[in-house]
Amino acid sequence: MSMPANPITRRLALPGWSVLRFGLTLVAGALLVAAIITGALVVFWIGIPVAVAVFLAIRLWANSQRRIIGEQLGVQIPAPYRVRPKARLDQQALWLVREAATWRDVAWLSIDATLGFLVNLLYLGVFGIAVYYLVQPLLLVTIFESAPIPVVNDFGFYDFDTPAKTLMLVPLAIACGAAWWRWGELFLRWYSHLGVLLLGPTSKALLTARVTELRQSRDQTADHAAAELRRIERDLHDGAQARIAALSLTLGMAEELLHHDKPEQAASLVGEARQACSDALEEIRQLVRGIHPPVLADRGFTGALQAMALDHPLPVSVVDRLVDKLPQPLEAAAYFATNEVLTNITKHAEARQVQVIVGRAGDRVVIEVRDDGRGGAVIAPGGGLDGVRNRLAAFDGTLDVESPEGGPTLVTMTIPAATVDRGGADNPAEAAAG
User: Is 332 found in the same domain as 246?
Assistant: First the structure.
């Protein structure tokens, strides 16, 4: 459930959200009492498992608050927790106590159990007064004609004890309704923004998470680069180098035959050597093409995609919405990532046709690959799509897969072009290896 986009519908839906938030404030009060009692019991051994249970319950409550407040404000509030270690119960309790996010949750718990209770009570009270006193005269002259006038109509200075007198409360209802309509949403949004400040990660936590992510991306890129260099070395050693060594032996034998006046046999060996030379040259060309395809340098990224589409066993259409040339490292990374996705489609999708759409969204390059296959594609660790994701991570890129069972499948690759311009690899081979 999320807040409606229409302003009128959103205001009308807010009382229901406020009732939900009001219920959570009652839960917050119960958890706050439990936390205080647990603090007194933690000096005994029995208090340790209770403390862990209470802290985990507070986290569940805080996560529900993040989801509800995020849907109300139309933002995403990520959980700022670190990964919980697998340790003894007392060590987990100590870890929970030492984590700053735990105490931020407790701080919001205290605020929501007190200030949140008053905020939602005031909002629902103003709304309830507006609705109640607006419809009360109508109810008293229809459904509840013989019922006594409610005691809530006794204001001390004057008792609105007849249906006619209750009409004098209609202006109060209209004033409360106008205040609720005009300021009620702003009031709740102000309080929700206060929750975002405490429930969301701090700038230090975001920076730490970002550094960790970049470190992992760097390590993955280094591992992929090392594996790519080993592959190139292995291909050279087992392929071209072996052919050139055989070529050298063949030419040596031909030379020896010439010395023994056997020109026909020598010519035959020279012909074999020429063929071996051609084969070695072709292997080297294929190896170079795997490092950085010449078509990228000749025709650019979209031209290389079109050439790839022509060689693909499935019908592939390329939609080019780029208006400028991409940096070489980004071209290489995007080319090989797209090639890997198309290879996965050929192997697993059972598709009949594929469409590749390339464009920009601000300073980001977006590549969408659609197929009409059987669907069910997932990013499995060690799989082809996981390799694509790791390749893109070197450029701070992302990979998203939408693939319901039965298809169709949409793979979206997004790469910030600005980051490549500022800090991309200078060598296209390095980008391809990454």
Answer: no
Residue 2 lies inside a defined structural domain of this protein:
no
Q: CA 169: distance to chain centroid?
A: 52
pLDDT 10s digits, 404-418: 888 788 888 888 875
* Same domain, yes or no: 138 and 63: yes
313-342 residue pLDDT tens: 888 888 888 777 777 777 777 888 888 888
Please give the Cα distance from 112 to 29 (Å, whole number).
Answer: 8
pLDDT higher than threshold 60 for residue 289: no
Q: Kindly state whether residue 279 falls inside one of the protein's structural domains.
A: yes
Q: Which helix (H) or strand (E) holds 105?
A: helix 100-111
Q: Which of 61-65, 69-73, 114-118 is the least confident region?
A: 69-73
**Element (DSSP H or E) covering residue 358:** strand 354-361
Find where tokens 């006794």 sit.
154
Its domain, for residue 268, covers 204-291
User: Given a cut of 60, is residue 352 above it in pLDDT?
Assistant: yes
* Alpha-carbon distance values, 185 to 119, 166, 182, 404 (Å): 12, 28, 7, 38
φ and ψ of 210, to 5 deg: -65, -40
Q: Assign 395 to helix, strand or coil.
A: coil
Q: Say if residues 177 and 160 touch (Cβ distance below 8 Å).
A: no
The band of 112, judged by pLDDT with boundaries at 50, 70 and 90, is: very high
Report the pLDDT value the prediction gives residue 429, as an integer from 0 to 100: 37
Domain count, the chain: 3
Whether 1 is in a domain gets the answer no
Query: Are 283 and 319 members of one domain?
Result: no
Amino acid type, 55: F
Whether residue 186 sits in one domain with residue 89: yes
pLDDT score at 427? 41
Residue 323 lies in a domain: yes
CA distance 286 to 276: 15
Spatial contact of 299 and 337, defined as CB atoms under 8 Å apart: no
Of 365, 352, 337, nearest to 408 (Cα)?
Answer: 352
Nearest Cα to Cα of residue 129 among 165, 161, 164, 175: 175
* Domain end (from 149, 170, 199): 199
The pLDDT assigned to 154 comes to 61
Euclidean distance between CA atoms 130 and 112, whole angstroms: 25
